[in-house]
Amino acid sequence: MKKIVSTQNAPAAIGPYSQGVWSGELLFLSGQIPINPENGEMVDGDAAAQAEQVLKNIGAILASQGLTFRDVVKATVFSTDMGTFSGVNEVYGRYFKEEPPARSFVEVSALPKGALVEIEVVASRS
């Protein structure tokens, strides 16, 4: 059985999807882009600055479910430029300090609202 997740501490979905969905002990988060949930605006700056907001949004959704970044078992990073890998990776590493999850880092041609970075994660309650 699935359970829909929603928190006002992260940006509302901008389409027909949920911020997250529980399926058993796994929480699947939709990809987060660098939208500030307080004003609904995209964060200015480079990919690293955008990754910071994206990870704050992910943290807010995780926290709403009693989880932390330590509970994340898989992450996928989407970037519009593989040249941003090291800057995004540096920010990412601050959130996943110990026992980081499995991860993919993929270059894509474009992201919603012109974002430079989008990250989706899967977390486990167990």
Task: Explain the overall architecture.
The protein has a 6-stranded mixed beta sheet with strand order 1-2-3-6-4-5, covered by helices on one side. It has a single domain, classed as RutC-like (60s Ribosomal Protein L30, Chain: A, 2-Layer Sandwich). It is built from 2 helices and 6 strands, in the order βββαβαββ. It is an alpha+beta fold and 126 residues long.
* Radius of gyration, whole Å: 14 Å
Q: Please estimate the helix content.
A: 10-25%
Structural category is alpha+beta
Q: What's the CATH topology name?
A: 60s Ribosomal Protein L30, Chain: A
**How is the main sheet built?**
6 strands, mixed
> What would the average pLDDT be, to the nearest integer?
97
Distance between the termini: 17 Å
CATH architectural grouping: 2-Layer Sandwich
Sequence of secondary-structure elements: EEEHEHEE
Basic shape: globular
What is the CATH class name?
A: Alpha Beta
Q: What's the total helix number?
A: 2
Search tags:
2 helices, 6 strands, 23% helix, globular
